[in-house]
Amino acid sequence: MGKKVKKEAEPPPKDVFDPVPIGSKNPATVVLMLHSPEQEVLVKACEAMYKFAEKGDENKATLVELGAVEPLSKLISNEDKAVRINAVMALGVMASHNDVKKLLKKLDVIPSILARLAPAEDTLIHEFASLCLAYLSVEYTSKVQIFELDGLDTLIRLLSSPDPDVKKNSLECIYQLVQDFPSRAAIRELNGIPPLLELLKSEYPVIQQLALKTLATITHDAETRVALRENQGFEQLIEILGNNELNDLHVETLVVVSNCMEDMDTVQLIQQTGGLDKLLQLAETSTLPEVQMNAAKAITNTAQSNENRKILHEQEVEKTLVTLLRVAHDGLRTAACHAIAIMCENLASKDEFRKLAGIQPIVQLLNSENAEVKKAAALALSNLTNANHLNANAVIEAEGTEALVQLLTDQMVGAVAYAADVLTNMCTQEALRSSILAQGAMQALTEALCSTDSLVLSKVVLAVAALACDSDARTELRNVGGLVPLVKLLNSKNDEVRRNACWAVLVCASDEPTAIEMCRLGALNILQEIHLSTSRKNNFSEAALQRLFDSNLSIKYSFTGCLSSSNKITDGFYDYGKVKPDHKMITLEELYKQKVNQHRPVVFLNAKPPEPALTELPPVENKSPDSPGGRSPTPSKNSNKDKTPRFVAEKMGGPVERDRLHEFFWELHVSELKFQLQSNVIPIGQIKKGTFYHRALLFKALADRIGINCSLVRGEYNRAWNEVLLADEVPKAPGKLFPPKAYAVDLMHSPGHLMKKNSPEAIQYQCI
């Protein structure tokens, strides 16, 4: 063989540059390099971008201004792996800047980023692509897009990545996604619970905490809680709580436990496995108030059902909660009071708190400088004293009355409402009412009645009603001006406030001066409007209206046309005539000030004891065609009760035959009286010629004075009559009494004659 001759290298093409080393400190130049067709240039440019952006937000903003975002978003899909890695790294770091996030959203980059999370891609790409998604997922529309592109499935897969940064970034993105309900359900359907639980064993606390925060969010869903229980997740959580070395995870763990314990099955499981003991022990012994606070919140969530409250009571949870009240931490005290409030739904627990001397520390919290603590303490006392006299007494013994009354003027709306609730509960005992009044409660309640908050008004009005159970309290309510805001609340647009205000008016109207003052303030008119409204009427409005009517019989008779036998006419009564429901009735003082007019005169009654002449009247006719056997149904023959009808008739012009009524010129007589007195108001004693309605009114006034049970009914066309209830003198069978019968009394034609109610002659007497 001949000797080989070395082949000379071919010279490079004449139209190609030799390799040029790249080195630039100008960001604008590097951004221009992102458009290079050479892979090596792109790699170095992207790498430079990553290092530059990593130094701070100002650099990221500079890159945005130079237009680096759009070419980078394209380069993450470059076919060259090195280019993709560096581009994704640069974009992942830059995505923390808000302007970058806006641009990426506009450029619709999420599909490209999700593609970089494919299993075939490099771990480094996974790390920064997931980081970019974590930043983007903070915004709602981005979360929706990630979810719709099945990104949640991809992220769950990455939770099993060997790289901790990939796990962290993916987990952070998942946490953002599950803030929306669809993603929570999808986590369960995609079997995401096991990998989340596995991350609780991570050696990195940040991953453990993110996993717990994610579990805390998704366990708001009942089906997810079931899945967690089926994957033995609850046991894992309890194990963390029992490990003091993991106390930095206890707060987040307790939040998850709190959610899970809303389910009775979970509570039973934790009780059976001893987990409930661990929880209560942790609450009592932990040196971290935040841990104790979340333990108290877990108890509150657990106690939402009757069955769970029974289990907690069996575990002596009351002792734990009373212990927590004494820890000097506002958040913990607030949480403990909330737990006590819900546990009070269990009657045994309500008593147990008193036996453990738990009411005293709650009362002390009413004086806290922290508004939330005061509100929570008032709530706890509200539930503790509800239908429990012993607990109400314990509040008094703890000197809580003054603090509760002071709380009525607090700025915290809830505190005022719950304080009013406690006072309402305490007012069921007369002795406690006196103590509450002595602390100036009426004045404080009056101020609270001016609140604009519906909850406060609803509770405060009930407290007023509960406290105003005696005349002294009602007098004080008048004196401090409490009736003015109370009457205004009858017009409240809030149904509950309006209903409670009607109840308070009903209670306060038991006192005649109070009722009269409320009428003066317009309560009667408002209640009449409510009565005519189908939407505003309530259970107490009609009763309150009737109570006010009964306290002012003049108004009642004008509006209703009827006074019952229990409505006793007294001095100052006046017959204004029939008034329409939507008409405002003029007071007697206003009527006296009017000039004489052509309207129907107002008859005024100034009642006096019966005159001596009344006892000398002849007996009335005893026979009544409607009475059995012709016997009189009147009680006796010679009593004043028998003489009253004739006395009335004689004072009013005597009997008038039915067919001669047109000759009985009573109208002329009354008109003459008006001009003689120069008043539209005529005292009934001045009337010498009176028709049906004059005589019926006088008879009613006298009957009320001498003990005749008599009603007064107004008819049409100046008719009015009286009805009495009388029993037969002799019962049909020995020892057997019959109910009394109603009779109309004739005062016009045959004074004293009794006509059976609704009989033809009674109807003839009442109508023209």
Low-confidence stretches: 1-6, 17-21, 610-638
Beta-strand proportion: under 5%
User: Helical segment tally?
Assistant: 44
Structural class: mainly alpha
End-to-end CA span: 157 Å
* Principal-axes shape call: elongated
- Radius of gyration using CA atoms only: 44 Å
- Total count of strands: 8
Largest sheet: 5 strands, antiparallel
Question: Order of strands across the biggest sheet?
Answer: 1-5-6-7-8
- Give the helix proportion (percent range): 55-70%
* Mean model confidence by pLDDT: 88
How would you describe this structure in keywords?
768 residues; mainly alpha; 3-stranded mixed β-sheet; elongated; disordered N terminus
Précis, in short:
By secondary structure, the chain is mainly alpha-helical.
Q: What's the topology here?
A:
Elements: H1 27-33, H2 39-53, H3 57-65, H4 69-75, H5 81-94, H6 98-106, H7 110-115, H8 123-136, H9 140-148, H10 151-158, H11 164-177, H12 181-189, H13 193-199, H14 205-218, H15 222-230, H16 233-241, H17 250-260, H18 264-272, H19 275-285, H20 289-302, H21 306-314, H22 317-325, H23 330-343, H24 347-355, H25 359-365, H26 371-385, H27 389-397, H28 401-407, H29 413-426, H30 430-438, H31 441-448, H32 454-467, H33 471-479, H34 483-488, H35 495-508, H36 512-520, H37 523-532, H38 541-551, H39 553-560, E1 562-563, E2 574-575, H40 588-593, E3 602-604, H41 640-651, H42 666-677, E4 681-683, H43 692-706, E5 710-714, E6 720-726, E7 741-745, E8 754-756, H44 760-766
Parallel strand pairs: 3-4
Antiparallel strand pairs: 1-5, 2-3, 5-6, 6-7, 7-8
